[in-house]
Design brief:
Length: 365
């Protein structure tokens, strides 16, 4: 193709327009990112770095696509080839925008949960990304001139067959959706199952829920079984809970004195025992009351969450034991009074036999 021919001139013009428009787009991208960095440093917003990181690569693709679009529009190419090229550019644009939106939404959601000291189940991230990708796919099909109605009809028929084949999987999936909507449990809650396992909810997935037990083992529970079981959530309506410590003293102790000492020790321990709360204040009840060998009291105080009760009980029992020794209050051992009755016929005695003719001790004659 001669250099001076019309085709060569058109190709050179298209290439020049591509280079010029791409450079202008890259310059605009550079200025925009520079302004965003200044705004991020001025405001200290945690979402600004996420925005910059999420748009860094897609924005390069957009700059190139803009240059290609202008070059194709400038060059005099056959209509069929031009239409095919524009469809390819449109497809790349929709895919890049969908990827950027999916990544930005996931990162922003994680950062928002982190700022609010909350956790979000993995099923939520999966659900959000699936919705974004389905929307992007529908936009892509509509832009390419493909009718969506037959696709939706085919998906409906195929979905029915898939639903019949994957009943258990779909049951767990919709059970996970139910857990997310109704929120009987949340990620981070401490729960106890009716089977006895207890621990923190680590994640609510699309098929199973993971519960991290205190020994650092993981219980993996299908969502459908979890929604049908009876469980106790120690974080609802709030993580704070009452701690009941039974205390037994001798019958010789003064109940008012014992009550005063227990409240004093629980009050002094606030601030020294992690998780032990000052409000509402600790109090004592003479319950269960009169035991077989002791006076039985119950010390009631508040801890910040379920696992704080173990250290609180440990430290409070030591403090109470030392204080009782100082005050001379006895913690009694179990005692039982046995009455022996002498004389009277033996129950179930039998008639004399040959062995009874042997000499008997003097006291038995």
């Amino acid at each position: 193709m001669p250099i001076g021919s019309p085709s060569a001139v058109q190709a050179l013009t298209a290439a020049s327009m591509f280079a010029l428009v791409t450079l202008l787009a890259l310059a605009f991208r550079y200025l925009t990112f520079r302004a965003l960095r200044r705004w991020a440093s001025a405001t200290g917003s945690p979402f600004s770095p996420l925005l910059l990181a999420g748009l860094r690569l897609p924005s390069l693709v957009w700059c190139v696509l803009i240059g290609l679009y202008v070059a194709i529009d400038t060059a005099e190419v056959p209509p069929r080839l031009s239409a095919a090229a524009l469809k390819v550019l449109f497809s790349l644009l929709v895919i890049s925008v969908t990827v950027a939106v999916a990544n930005l939404s996931g990162a922003a959601l994680r950062e928002g949960m982190k700022q609010n000291m909350a956790a979000l189940p993995g099923l939520s991230f999966t659900f959000i990304k699936v919705v974004i990708w389905i929307t992007g796919g529908l936009v892509l099909l509509g832009g390419l001139g493909i009718s969506i109605t037959p696709v939706l009809t085919a998906l409906g028929v195929g979905g029915l067959a898939v639903a019949l084949a994957l009943q258990d999987t779909l049951s767990n999936f919709f059970a996970g959706i139910h857990l997310l909507v109704e929120k009987p449990i949340r990620v981070g809650d401490f729960i106890k199952l009716e089977t006895g396992q207890e621990g923190y909810v680590a994640d609510i997935g699309w098929r199973t829920t993971r519960i991290r037990m205190l020994p650092n083992n993981m219980v993996i529970m299908p969502n459908s079984k979890l929604t049908q079981s009876v469980l106790t959530n120690y974080y609802l309506p709030e993580p704070r809970m009452s701690l009941l410590i039974p205390i037994s003293v001798s019958y010789r102790s003064d109940p008012d004195h014992v009550e005063r000492l227990l409240v004093e020790e629980a009050t002094r321990a606030v601030g020294h025992i992690p998780g032990l709360l000052a409000e509402p204040p600790a109090f004592v009840r003479f319950i269960p009351g009169f035991g077989e060998s002791s006076l039985d009291f119950t010390l009631i105080c508040q801890v910040q969450e379920f696992t704080d009760q173990y250290l609180a009980q440990h430290e409070l029992r030591k403090r109470i034991f030392k204080r009782f020794k100082e005050e001379g209050i006895e913690i009694p051992f179990p005692q039982r009074t046995v009455h022996l009755h002498a004389g009277g016929p033996s129950v179930g005695s039998a008639s004399p036999t040959a062995s009874d003719s042997e000499p008997q001790p003097p006291h038995a004659r």
